[in-house]
Amino acid sequence: MRVLDIVFLIMGLVLLFVGLAVVVMFLTWLERKVLARIQSRLGPMRTAPYGLLQPVADAVKLVFKEDVIPNWASRFVFWMAPILVAVPAFMIWFAIPADRELAIYKIPDASNLFELGLIYVLAISALSTVGVVLAGWSAGNKYSTLGTLRAAAQMLSYEIALVMAAVGVAMLAGSIDLESIVNAQVPGTAPIAGTRWPHAIFAVVQPLGLVIFFLAGLAELSRTPFDIMQAESEIVSGHMVEYSSSHFAGFYLAEYMNTFAIGALVSLLFLGGWHGPLLPGWLWFVIKTFFVVCLILWVRGTFPRLRIDQFMSFCWKALIPLSFVNIAVTAICLYYGWPAWGLTLISLAIVIGAGYFLYRQISAPARETRARFHQRQEAA
Amino acid sequence: MAESEPRLQTTEINVNMGPQHPATHGVFRMVLAIDGERVVDVTPHIGYLHRGSEKLAEGLQYHQITPLFDRMAYPAAMNNELVYCMAVEKLMGLEVPERAQYIRVLMCELNRIASHFLFLSSIGLDTGALTPGLYAFRGRERLMAFFEAAAGARLLPNYFVVGGVREDLHDGWKEQLSGVLSLVEFDTDEVDKLLTYNEVFVTRTRNVALIDGRTAIEYGALGPVLRASGVPYDVRKAEPYMVYDRLDFDIPRGENGDCWDRYYVRLFEVRQSLRIVRQAMERIPEGPVQGLRRPTGIRPPKGEAYARSENPTGEIGVYLVSDGSSNPYRVKVRPPSFCNLMALKHLLREAYVADIGVILGTLDIVLGEVDR
Predict the structure, then answer these.
(1) Minimal CA–CA distance to B219: which of B58, B346, B306?
(2) Residue B200: which of A225, A236, A367 has the nearest Cβ?
(3) Candidate from A119-133, A234-248, B256-270 with smallest mean pLDDT
(4) Cα separation, A243 vs A232, whole angstroms
(5) Which terminus of chain B is less hemmed in, N or C, by CB atoms within 10 Å?
(6) How far is residue B159's CA from residue B67's CA, in Å, rounded to a whole number?
(7) What pLDDT does A279 receive?
(8) What three-state secondary structure class fits B69?
(9) What does the alpha-carbon distance between residue A299 and residue A225 come to, in Å, rounded to a whole number?
(10) Letter string b/e over residues B204-230, b meaning 16 or more CB atoms within 10 A of that residue's CB
(11) Phi, psi (rounded to 5 degrees) for B65
(12) Minimal Cα distance from B192: which residue of A?
C-alpha cells in the first residue's frame, strides 16, 4: 500500500514535469507569436506549420551549445545557480490544483503541508531570487553584478505588495488553502459564517487586490514594464550575461514556468479557478491561466521599462500603501458584514482614483506639452 | 572623533560600455565610473569607425566623392550628398535647375523622415519597448522602397550629383509616393499613440538629462537637440537653401530640453517633413534635372567654399578648398553628430545607468559621421 502510494507520487511528479515542460515550450512559441502579431510580424513560420516546432529547435540548439564557465567565475555557485532558480519554479506547482481532485498533493500521504497552499506558493516563489542573486554575483561580470543588485532591490519592493494582496484574498475566503479559496468564489457554496456574501469571483469583489497582485506578479516575473534586472538594452540580460547552453536553458525554463504559475495563481485567487459553465474544470483553469498569460504578453508588447528607482518608489509609495488599504477596506467590510457589492464599489473607486492620480501626475503634463507644441505651430 | 565613525566602504566601479553593446548606437565606447546606479564620470572613446573619408576625398575626382558622403550619416544619406553638392556648386557658381532643386528637397525630406523613424525605433528599444520600433521600421521600409524605385538603392543611393540629380524620378512616382506618404503618416500616428503620453515612457524621459538653451549653444549642440532646448534654429529657415524659402513649414521648439522634448521635436519634424513633401509634390515643375552637360570631370576654379544644410541630426557643414585641379585640395566636414556628442558628458552627469542608452539615443548620433 505504501509502496503503491510512492509509485503514484513519483508518477505524478514525472507527469507534472513533462506536462510543464510541454506547456513551457508552447509558451515560448505563444509569446513569440503573440508579440509578432502585436508588432505586425509573422513570428516563427519555418519549422512545422505556423512554426509550432520552433521551441524544439530552440531547445536542441541550446542544449548542444558549449557550456562556457568564465575563468573568473566562482565555479560551484555559478553551476548551481540556474538549478536554484529552476527548482523553486517547479516546486510551486506541487501546490497548485488544476481541478477539484487534480493536484499532486491529492495523492494519498503526499503531504498535508499544502493545506497552507497560499503561503507555500508565495514562499517558494520568493526563493528563486536567491538563485538569481547567486547567478549574477558568481559570474564576476560587472553587468551581471548590476543586474543582481537590481534583482535584490526589486524583490524587496514587490514582495510585500504581492503577499499583502494575497492576504486580502485569504481574508475574503477565510482560508489559505487554495482549494477553499477557489470554492469560496462560487455563487451559493461555501458561505462564510456571519456574513451576507453573494459569492462572486474575487476579481469582481476586490478589483484593487487583482490590480496589485497582477502588477506585483509582473515584477516577480521581471517582465515588462518591470524587467529591470534583465534590461537587455542597458545591462544586456543582467544575471544571465555569462550563461550559455543548458544552464541558460534553466533560466529560460524557470522564467516561463513562473509566468505560467503567476497566470495560474491569478486565475485561482481572482478568476474562480476551475469553476465555469459547460466545459470541464481543468479546461476552464487552463483557459483562465492562458488568458492571464496573454495579458502579460500584451503588456510586454505595449510598455517600455521603468527605471529601478522609479520602480522602487512606485512599489513603496503606491503598491504597498494600496495593498494595506485593500486589507483595511476588506477587514471593515467583513467586520460589519456589508454586502459584496459594497466592497466592489469601494475597491473600484480606489483603483479608478489611483489611476486618475497617475494620469494627472504623469500622462497629463505630457499631453499638455504636446498640445503646446502644436499651438505654437498654429500661432507661428 | 566624529569622522572615525565606522562607515560602509564603497568604491566606484569602472564599466566598459561598448564598442559592442546594444545600447551604444554603433561602435561607440564609454568608460563609465559608476557609484551604484549613478554615473559619476564618463570617458567617451570614438574612432572605431574611422575610415578617413576626408583624406580619401582628396584623392578622388569631384563626382566620385558623393558615395563617401553617403556613408557618413548613413540613415540620411541623401542629406549628406546634398551638402557636398551644394559646396561644389557654390565653388563653381552653378545654378541648379528648379526641378532638380525640388527633387532634392523631396528626397531630403523623405530621408529625414527615414532617419527620424530610425530614431523613434531606437528610443523605443532604449526604453525597453519593442513595438513602436517595429512600427517605425515598417514606415522606414516603405520609404526605402520608394528610394529604391527612384534611385536604385535603398540605403546609399548616390542619387545627387553636382549640378542636379543623376536622373529624373521614375514614371508613376507621384502615385507611388502619395500611397507611401499616407501609410507613413499612419505609422507616425501609431508611434505617437504608443509612446508620447505612455505613462512609463513619460516617466522614463520627462526631466531626464536636462539641458537649457544657453548650455546647449555653449556645447555646440545642433538640430533637434538644440531645438528641444527652446532655440528655434534651423538652417532651412535661418539661411534657406534650395527651395525651402518657398515652402511652408514650422520649426518645433521644446520647453525643458529633456529627453521627452528631444523625442517629440523629432516626431513633430516628421509631420512637418510630410507637409514639405506634399507641397513639393504639388509644385514640382517640368524641366531638366541636370545643370551641367555631364557631371563628371568637374574642375571648379581655384578657391574655397563653405556650404551648410540641415541634416536630421543637425546642421552639417562642408568646407571645400579647390586648387583648380580635378581633385579637391581639402574636404572638411563639420558633422552634427560629433558636435551633439560634446554635450554627452554634461548630460550623463549624475544620470542613472539605465538612462545612458536613452540619453545617447536622444542625441541621435551616427558613428559613421562622428568618426568619418
Answers:
(1) B346
(2) A225
(3) A234-248
(4) 14
(5) N
(6) 9
(7) 80
(8) helix
(9) 8
(10) bbbebbebebeebeebbbbbbbbbbbb
(11) -90, -25
(12) A370
Burial classification of residue B16, based on how many CB atoms lie within 10 Å of its CB (0-12 exposed, 13-18 middle, 19 or more buried): middle
Q: Does the residue B334 lie in any domain?
A: yes
Contact call for residues A39 and A33 (beta carbons, < 8 A)? no
Task: Kindly list the residues from chain B whose CB atom is less than 8 angstroms away from the CB atom of residue A231.
Answer: 128, 354
Supply the DSSP symbol for A316.
I
- Residue A193 — pLDDT band, cuts 50, 70, 90? very low
Query: Which 8-state DSSP code applies to residue A196?
Result: -
Cα distance between residue A166 and residue A177, in whole Å: 12
State which residue of chain B sits closest to A305, comparing Cα positions: B128
**CB within 8 Å: B22 and A38:** no
ipTM of the complex: 0.83
Nearest CA in chain B to A147: B37
CA pair distance A70, A128, nearest whole angstrom: 23
DSSP letter assigned to residue B2: G
Average pLDDT value for residue range A69-97: 86
**Are B26 and B45 spatial neighbours (Cβ–Cβ below 8 Å)?**
no
Most distant CA pair in chain B, distance: 87
For residue B244, being part of any structural domain is answered with: yes
CB B275 within 8 A of CB B105: no
Does residue B23 form part of some domain?
no
- Judging contacts by C-beta atoms under 8 Å, the chain A residues touching residue B128 are 224-225, 227, 231-233, 303-305
The length of chain A is 380
Residue linked to cell 567565475: A73
C-alpha–C-alpha distance, residues B154 and B148, integer Å: 5
User: Interface of chain A against chain B, CB under 8 Å?
Assistant: 35, 38-41, 142-143, 146, 149-150, 224-225, 227-228, 231-236, 301-310, 358-359, 362-363, 365-367, 369-370, 372-373, 376-377, 380
Q: Which CATH number fits the domain that encloses residue B347? A: 1.10.645.10
Q: Which three cell numbers stand for residue A39?
A: 508588432
What's the farthest any 2 CA atoms get from each other in chain A?
89
- d(CA A298, CA B244) in angstroms, rounded, equals 44
CA distances from A336 to A171, A192, A332, B86, B155 (A): 14, 13, 6, 82, 71
Contact A39 B203 (CB under 8 A): no
By CB atoms closer than 10 A (0-12, 13-18, 19+), residue A170 is: buried
d(CA B249, nearest CA chain A) in Å? 9
Q: What is the mean pLDDT of each run of 10 residues along chain B (372 residues)?
A: 66 82 78 85 87 88 88 87 90 88 91 91 86 89 91 88 86 89 90 87 88 88 88 87 87 86 91 90 86 80 90 90 88 89 86 87 86 82
In whole angstroms, give the CA distance from residue A134 to residue A118: 26
| Structure confidence at residue B110 (pLDDT) | 92
Q: Which residues pair with B332 in a beta bridge?
A: B319
Q: Which amino acid is at A4?
A: L
The DSSP output letter for B94 is P
Domain carrying residue B174: 47-371
H or E, element range at A234: helix A232-235
Q: Is residue B102 part of a domain?
A: yes
Distance CA B35, CA A117 (A): 42
Strand-pair partners of A71: none
The alpha carbon dihedral of A272, A274, A275, A278 has a sign of: positive
**CB-side exposure of A55: number of CA atoms within 13 Å?**
18
Task: Tell me how far apart the alpha carbons of residues A96 and A257 are, in angstroms, rounded to a whole number.
Answer: 13
Q: How many independent structural domains does chain B possess?
A: 1
